[in-house]
C-alpha cells in the first residue's frame, strides 16, 4: 500500500497465460492489475499460468498486484493459493464466493501456505447466493480489502437480457456497495466487454461512479484512461473540497459547529467527505503512475 487510501480507479485483468501482456502491464497507468488464473486461462494452461503470475507478481513497482486464483472446488485452486502465498502479490482474489465459509477457507489455506500478514484478500461477488450473503462475507474476515463485481456471471445466473441501463442488476450492485461500505471495504464495478462502444463504456463508468463504486474492472488497456478520469478527482471537485475544509476549519477555530459556504450549510459530515476527496487526490498525485 502506498498510502492509507489506495486508488483503485482502474483495475485491469491480465491473462496470466499471456507473457506479452504480463510484461506490457508494467508500463500501463492502471491503479491495479489482476493477474488472472481463472476465467482467462484454459485448463491446459493453468499450471504454466500459475508459474508465470507468481514470477511476475513482485516485479510491478507502480501498480497494486492481485492474483485471481481458481476456486478451491476446482483441480487448481489449492495449488494456486499455495503458490500465490509466496508470490509477493499484494492480494489474492477469490472467485465465486457464495458465503463466509468460502472466504475463510481460502484465507486459512493461504496463511497455512505462509502468506504474509499484509497480503490482503479480494472477493468476487458474482453468484446469486454470494449476493444474498454479501453482508456476512464482508464481515467475515478482517483481511478482506475489496469486493469486485462479476456482473457478467451474475447477469447470466439471473437470466437478464442485455440492457445498457443494467436495470436488473441495480438491486445487487447497490446491495454490495452497502455491504462493503458498512465494513469500510472498497468495491469495484464489473467489466464492460464491448470495446468498440466507447460511449457506452463512459456511460457505465458514470453510472458506477454515481452508484458509489471506487473504480472499474477492465479487460483492455484502452479502458484505463477513461476509468481513471471517471473515478478520479476533477479540478472542480478538488477546489470545492478544499473550500469546504477551509470553511469548516475556520468555523471550528471560531467555536462554531457549522459553517456556511456559498449559501450551503457545512457540517462535519461534509468536511469528512471533502477530506477523503483530498486524500484520494493526494494518493493519486503521489502515485508514480500519475
Walk me through the structure.
This protein is an alpha/beta fold and 290 residues long. It folds into two domains: 10-231, Alpha-Beta Barrel (TIM Barrel), CATH 3.20.20; 235-286. It has helices at residues 19-24, 46-56, 77-85, 100-112, 128-132, 134-140, 151-157, 170-182, 198-211, 224-231, 235-253, 268-286; strands at residues 10-15, 32-36, 64-68, 91-94, 120-125, 144-149, 186-189, 215-218, 259-261, 264-266. It has an eight-stranded parallel β-barrel, surrounded by seven helices. The protein has a two-stranded antiparallel ribbon with strand order 9-10. It is globular and about 65 Å long.
Distinctive features:
globular; alpha/beta; TIM Barrel; 290 residues; 45% helix; 12 helices; two-stranded antiparallel ribbon; 8-stranded parallel beta barrel; single chain; 2 domains
State the end-to-end distance: 16 Å
The second-level CATH architecture of the largest domain is Alpha-Beta Barrel
Q: Give, in spatial order, the strands making up the sheet with the most strands.
A: 1-2-3-4-5-6-7-8
For this structure, the CATH topology of the largest domain is TIM Barrel
The major pleated sheet works out as: 8 strands, parallel, barrel
Classify the helix fraction into a percent range. 40-55%
Low-confidence stretches: none
Q: State mean pLDDT (0 to 100 scale).
A: 95
How many structural domains in the coordinates? Answer: 2
Shape: globular
SS strand fraction: 15-25%
Structural class call reads alpha/beta
Amino acid at each position: 500500500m502506498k498510502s492509507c487510501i489506495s486508488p483503485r480507479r482502474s483495475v485491469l485483468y491480465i491473462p496470466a497465460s499471456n507473457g506479452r501482456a504480463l510484461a506490457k502491464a508494467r508500463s500501463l497507468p492502471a491503479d491495479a492489475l489482476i493477474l488472472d488464473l481463472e476465467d482467462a486461462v484454459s485448463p491446459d494452461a493453468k499450471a504454466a499460468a500459475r508459474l508465470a503470475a507468481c514470477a511476475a507478481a513482485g516485479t510491478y513497482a507502480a501498480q497494486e498486484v492481485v492474483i485471481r486464483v481458481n476456486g478451491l472446488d476446482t483441480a487448481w485452486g489449492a495449488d494456486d493459493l499455495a503458490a500465490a502465498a509466496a508470490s509477493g502479490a499484494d492480494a489474492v482474489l477469490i472467485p465465486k464466493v457464495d458465503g463466509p465459509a468460502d472466504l475463510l477457507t481460502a484465507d486459512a489455506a493461504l496463511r497455512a501456505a505462509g502468506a504474509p500478514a499484509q497480503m490482503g484478500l479480494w472477493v468476487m461477488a458474482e453468484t446469486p447466493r454470494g449476493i444474498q450473503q454479501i453482508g456476512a462475507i464482508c464481515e467475515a474476515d478482517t483481511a478482506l480489502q475489496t469486493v469486485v463485481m462479476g456482473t457478467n456471471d451474475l447477469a447470466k445466473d439471473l437470466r437478464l437480457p442485455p440492457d445498457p441501463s443494467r436495470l436488473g442488476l441495480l438491486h445487487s450492485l447497490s446491495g454490495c456497495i452497502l455491504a462493503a461500505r458498512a465494513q469500510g471495504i472498497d468495491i469495484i464495478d464489473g467489466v464492460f466487454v464491448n470495446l468498440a462502444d466507447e460511449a457506452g463504456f463512459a456511460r457505465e463508468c458514470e453510472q458506477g461512479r454515481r452508484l458509489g463504486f471506487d473504480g472499474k474492472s477492465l479487460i483492455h488497456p484502452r479502458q484505463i484512461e477513461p476509468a481513471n478520469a471517471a473515478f478520479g478527482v476533477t479540478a472542480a471537485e478538488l477546489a470545492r473540497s478544499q473550500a469546504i475544509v477551509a470553511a469548516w476549519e475556520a468555523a471550528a477555530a471560531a467555536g462554531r459547529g457549522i459553517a456556511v459556504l456559498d449559501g450551503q450549510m457545512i457540517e462535519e459530515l461534509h468536511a469528512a467527505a471533502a477530506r477523503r476527496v483530498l486524500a484520494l487526490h493526494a494518493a493519486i498525485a503521489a502515485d508514480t503512475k500519475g
